[in-house]
């Protein structure tokens, strides 16, 4: 008995695209509006997040900028979306929740963009 099989049409090659997506550097952008008059205190707390980000090997650059008296901008460059996601799950990131719960952060916006 002879058995014949037909090969399915080959799937489009996506491996290279997937690798590129996994290694595509991204920029994280976060803006924090302090409660009125608490800009300096918020800046000091955000400096700790900046130090922790700079210790992460997947972070190639990170900066904290002040805009006005109560607005802070935290910008980071990450090796990949997965690296940023892993960093955001680290214990020190719980600080943001505590700052919001404590009323120090009046509002915040978080985003990412491709590098």
The figure for the number of domains is 1
Terminal residue distance:
59 Å
The dominant shape is globular
The percent range for helix content is 25-40%
Average pLDDT, rounded to a whole number, is 84
Strand order of the largest sheet: 2-3-1-4
Oligomer: single chain
- What is the number of helical segments per DSSP (H or I, 4+ residues)? 4
Query: The CATH topology is what?
Result: Alpha-Beta Plaits
Spans of at least 5 consecutive residues whose pLDDT stays below 50 are: 1-21
What's the main sheet like? Answer: 4 strands, antiparallel
Question: Structural class given helices, strands, pairing?
Answer: alpha+beta
Rg value: 21 Å
Q: Could you name the CATH class?
A: Alpha Beta
Please name the CATH architecture.
2-Layer Sandwich
Strand and helix order: HEHEEHHE
Describe the fold and architecture.
This protein is an alpha+beta fold and 115 residues long. The chain has one domain (24-114): Alpha-Beta Plaits, CATH 3.30.70. Helix content is 37%, strand content 31%. The protein has helices at residues 15-23, 39-55, 81-88, 94-101; strands at residues 26-34, 59-67, 71-78, 105-114. Strands 2-3-1-4 form a four-stranded antiparallel β-sheet.
Notable traits:
single chain, 115 residues, alpha+beta, Alpha-Beta Plaits, four-stranded antiparallel beta sheet, 4 helices, 37% helix, globular, disordered N terminus
Brief summary of the model shown:
The chain is α+β, with helices and mostly antiparallel strands and 115 residues long. The protein has helices at residues 15-23, 39-55, 81-88, 94-101, and strands spanning 26-34, 59-67, 71-78, 105-114.
């Amino acid at each position: 008995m002879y058995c014949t099989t037909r090969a399915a049409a080959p799937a489009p090659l996506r491996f290279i695209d997937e690798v590129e997506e996994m290694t595509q550097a991204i920029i994280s952008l976060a803006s924090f509006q302090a409660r009125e008059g608490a800009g300096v205190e918020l800046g000091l707390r955000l400096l700790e997040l900046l130090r922790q980000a700079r210790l992460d090997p997947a972070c190639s650059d990170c900066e904290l900028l002040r805009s006005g008296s109560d607005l802070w901008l935290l910008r980071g460059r990450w090796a990949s979306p997965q690296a940023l996601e892993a960093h955001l799950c680290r214990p020190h990131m719980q600080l943001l929740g505590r700052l919001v719960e404590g009323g120090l952060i009046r509002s915040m916006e978080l985003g990412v963009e491709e590098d």
